[in-house]
Write a structure and sequence with these properties.
mainly alpha; Non-ribosomal Peptide Synthetase Peptidyl Carrier Protein, Chain A; 9% strand; two-stranded antiparallel sheet
Amino acid sequence: MGLLKEFKEFAVKGNVVDLAVAVIIGGAFGKIVSSFVKDVVMPPIGVMLGGVSFTDLAIVLKEGVTNAAGEVVTEPVLLTYGVFVQNVVDFIIVAFVIFMAVKGINSMKKKEEAAPAPPPAPPKSEVLLEEIRDLLKKG
């Protein structure tokens, strides 16, 4: 029973729940950024490169073989480096977006920290003593 209780305490701690939420949001955010890269950023880059899509870039290591009827006997062996290039570009853009988000959050935290907290009110006894002092000065 002790192990189950320990696990329950661990699972409901704030850090574990926060991490779970972060993973879920991060997964959804990753899909958005990947779509942005694939559907918005890469097409213009492909056009600038002469209509080449990075995912189509490959080196043929071994040609495929077809028979006299035109049927494929063996598939070609390809080194598809374009997919790797696409993933590197995706990573760089995702990392940059996350960097900018963290930088913005940190600047907001610094502004909150920079705002000075009002000085604490003096204790009630000190206020009363000051009032008595002021009355004695007058009288």
